[in-house]
Design goal:
single chain; Rossmann fold; eight-stranded mixed sheet; 9 helices; 37% helix
């Protein structure tokens, strides 16, 4: 690849993709709401993308999303940005000559992750976006690949917006506080953002197509993760199970490691390694909040 459009270039995932591509000498064409982007686009708005310079690229990596909830405002936001915004994405494809879209999808779009529970607005809208973008690329004879990513985390604390319990566990352990946790009816699954970025880049630079679930090979029990955090930070923190708190929902994370073999890369950073990285980097203060209910 010589040039790649990164849509959502200033997001947690987009920044890591940009860093890794730059290290490979690939030209980055940034796309997003920021006015200094090469392509200024506000997904879901009525405005067409603005191209600040003439650009051509082989691949577009799409990691921009709305993360609204299931209230009316959240539903509107998800449908507007994640689904209606696909028209603007296809506009960018047409203007830049892109022949492949690689989409940062979500396991939230997989009905089996929470069997028996209807998809939330976020997961539904992301799944429909896959269908729209795949249709759009098929129409022009291009390719589409979606990696349905598990829950992502980083060492700088940007993940706390979407993973509050991850942030809270790190915050309480690093402050040596007592963390009151609910019971859990199943594990969680987390992947470091650098591993996820590497997989998306490799998908962009390969013939891989279609929709693929991507989970970290090992699930995580949040109580055990909290215990590990207390050991790593060694600040005297403790854990109490609070039966009054709403239990963590039961979730199932599909394991299809064939995608790692196809891309020639297996995720490398475990949560235990990550706790040490956070401690050594001195970034624990960026994690939280301390008041998740």
């Amino acid at each position: 690849m010589k040039a790649v459009v990164v849509l959502g270039a200033t997001s947690m995932l987009g920044r890591e993709i940009t860093r890794q591509l730059s290290n490979k000498g690939v030209e980055i064409i940034s796309a997003g709401r920021h006015l200094d982007s090469d392509i200024v686009v506000n997904l879901g708005s009525s405005d067409a993308p603005t191209f600040r310079k003439s650009v051509q690229a082989e691949v577009l990596i799409h990691c921009a999303s709305a993360f609204g909830g299931d209230d009316l405002d959240g539903v509107k936001q998800n449908l507007s940005v994640n689904m209606a915004g696909c028209a603007q994405v296809l506009d960018i494809v047409q203007h830049t000559g892109v022949r492949k879209i690689v989409y940062a999808g979500s396991l939230s779009s997989d009905q089996l992750v929470e069997s028996g529970i209807p998809l939330g607005a976020y997961g539904f809208s992301k799944g429909e976006a896959e269908r729209i973008l795949q249709w759009g690329m098929t129409k022009i004879g291009g390719d589409f690949c979606s990696l349905r990513l598990t829950q992502l985390w980083d060492t700088e604390g940007a993940c706390c917006t979407h993973q509050p319990w991850f942030g809270r566990i790190v915050a309480y352990a690093s402050h040596g506080l007592t963390l009151k946790m609910p019971t859990a009816d199943g594990p969680r699954n987390f992947m470091h953002v650098s591993d996820a970025a590497q997989l998306l880049i490799r998908a962009a630079d390969s013939s891989l197509a279609g929709i693929r679930p991507v989970s970290f090979p090992v699930d995580t029990d949040l109580l055990e993760f909290a215990r590990q955090a207390n050991v790593v930070f060694d600040r005297g923190g403790s854990i109490e199970i609070d039966a009054a708190k709403k239990p963590f929902r039961k979730m199932y994370f599909p394991k299809d490691e064939s995608v790692f073999d196809l891309l020639g890369f297996h995720p490398r950073i475990s949560l235990e390694d990550g706790l040490t990285l956070i401690r050594n980097a001195g970034t624990a203060e960026a994690f939280g909040p301390l008041d998740v209910q």
